[in-house]
Amino acid sequence: xxxxxxxxxxxxxxxxxxxxxxxxxxxxxxxxxxxxxxxxxxxxxxxxxxxxxxxxxxxxxxxxxxxxxxxxxxxxxxxxxxxxxxxxxxxxxxxxxxxxxxxxxxxxxxxxxxxxxxxxxxxxxxxxxxxxxxxxxxxxxxxxxxxxxxxxxxxxxxxxxxxxxxxxxxxxxxxxxxxxxxxxxxxxxxxxxxxxxxxxxxxxxxxxxxxxxxxxxxxxxxxxxxxxxxxxxxxxxxxxxxxxxxxxxxxxxxxxxxxxxxxxxxxxxxxxxxxxxxxxxxxxxxxxxxxxxxxxxxxxxxxxxxxxxxxxxxxxxxxxxxxxxxxxxxxxxxxxxxxxxxxxxxxxxxxxxxxxx
Length: 357
Fold this sequence. Notes:
Layout: E1 8-9, E2 16-17, E3 20-23, H1 33-45, E4 50-52, H2 68-79, E5 88-93, H3 111-125, E6 130-135, H4 161-173, E7 177-183, H5 187-200, E8 205-211, H6 223-230, E9 233-237, H7 264-267, H8 269-272, H9 279-294, H10 299-308, E10 313-319, H11 323-331, H12 339-352
Parallel strand pairs: 3-4, 3-10, 4-5, 5-6, 6-7, 7-8, 8-9, 9-10
Antiparallel strand pairs: 1-2
Helix pairs in contact: 2-3, 3-4, 5-6, 9-10, 9-12
Keywords: Oxidoreductase
Pfam families: Aldo_ket_red
Protein name: Aldo/keto reductase
């Protein structure tokens, strides 16, 4: 494997990360503490210095596992205190409830909520500082998690972006956060956060974490230009389309109960009912997976290489349930896709568009 050097600068921040980030949302649900620690150890051994989590993890979100992922990472730090200085740690404050009252009361995300969530994350993670603190989804009503159309009649925003920024800036000034970011954001949201930060001398967003894979290239519909021109880095999540782009569902032809029993979409109805469980997504994934095999690649190799080599992507977030999966994903680093293969990928996209947007 080509060496993973921590030479990717996140926006205008001082954070230097590897081009692959370990996502941890399976920790505490599919992956228990011992195996999670083994995965973290192996990622560090393989050169990964970037770890991403969130207060609402594990996924699928449940009251019983709220905060479990951060707690598992915190116990890893406690057992191996020497590793904390070796990693860039990212976590997220959940946006408005979205049917999760155990996260917070009410529909908003007040400045007080942001501060309280940050302090709770610091305790669970057993650290004094969060390197990158992100808003998990906008406080505004925007299309996200499978909703594709903006409907202004559904707007219930209660906390202006400026107030959110001031709260985040206060955490930076207090030394609890080094840099800030967004997630599941729109071009408007990125522009507004940057504009207000520059106008008021507040902390500037360094990153946006959005889905980006062969089944969902909506980042290319304007967000990529926004981020390029404003010098904001993209952290691409779900590069394997929640497993659809590994080929594991190809034989069964379904993401329903008849799919492989260990697969998240088969196990968890709440996940299956969102964007990754659509029949059109699986249909498109099977075409991409067949194309990979025709070119001598595994579906996983092609899907990851797509993200690993895109100019839009600063760091790709990979989520795994075992050390074996981790090694497979890391071994795909350095895989190149020929111009001819990329042209074939674009042909499928022209037909299928973004079925998992």
